[in-house]
Specification:
Protein name: DUF883 domain-containing protein
Strand content: under 5%
Structural class: mainly alpha
Number of helices: 2
Mean pLDDT: 89
Distance between the termini: 123 Å
Organism: Pararhodobacter marinus
Radius of gyration: 44 Å
Keywords: Membrane, Transmembrane, Transmembrane helix
Largest sheet: none
Number of domains: 1
């Protein structure tokens, strides 16, 4: 009677084959799930990278635009100052030459003291 309660070799083989098939199906499902997750994560990462690149591009364009505006402002100021200097030289040439000579004299005196 003890022998009747033990499964036969054929029954064990069928159960083992069923278990093997179940594990194969599980491995296939896990592979499909991993591929789906990889695709989803890849898409999300690409979207985040595109968003960051767009933000960086916008910041760079804004910075460039601001720098260009400042450059134009400085250029106008320099042109205005140069125009004012030209007008002053035309109006008072003797005073300008005397001022330049005085500055030259001071620079020469300071250079002679250090040397």
């Amino acid at each position: 009677m003890a022998r009747a309660s033990q499964p036969s070799t054929a029954q064990l083989k069928r159960e083992f084959d069923a278990l093997k098939a179940d594990l194969g199906a599980l491995a296939h499902e896990m592979r499909a799930y991993a591929q789906a997750q990889e695709s989803s994560l890849s898409s999300r990462a690409q979207a985040k990278a595109n968003t960051a690149a767009d933000a960086a591009r916008g910041a760079a364009e804004s910075l460039f635009s601001g720098a260009d505006h400042q450059f134009q402002h400085i250029r106008q100021f320099a042109e205005s100052a140069a125009g004012g200097a030209e007008d002053m030289v035309r109006e008072r040439p003797a005073a300008i030459v005397a001022g330049a000579a005085a500055i030259g004299f001071l620079v020469g005196a300071l250079a002679a003291r250090k040397g």
